[in-house]
Amino acid sequence: MELGPSLHHLEIWVPRPPQTGDTWDRLLAALGCAMTQEWQGGRRYELGAGYLVLESGPDVRGARHERQAPGVNHVALELSTRAHVDRVVEQLPELGWELLFSDAHPWAGGPNYYAAYLENADGYEVELVAKE
């Protein structure tokens, strides 16, 4: 019996080359994702069984991601516990991300769905979902 597909990698084009200390780098470090490769204009981070690439270059158009336009709205990452989600949320100001739907946090996704919805200044949204 063949298994269904799993995510191999996700590549996100960003308006500026990724670098140490930018919002993505700080968030991924707080999540425990190691940067394993770097080249001019890009970086690769380990993400569970797959990996995430952040890349910028001459083909990238625009200075801000518009998550409400057709295309990818957000990336959802599963964390093992609610406490891990909470620890990251506490660090958001230092990480350069804002909490979306703060009036309904952490239940913005529903009464049985513990998650945090984050957005950075470039318009990217990341959802952190507690597995437990």
From TrEMBL:
Superkingdom to which the source organism belongs: Bacteria
The VOC domain, residue ranges: 6-131
InterPro entries: Glyas_Bleomycin-R_OHBP_Dase, VOC_core
The protein's name in its UniProt record: Glyoxalase
Species of the source: Galactobacter caseinivorans
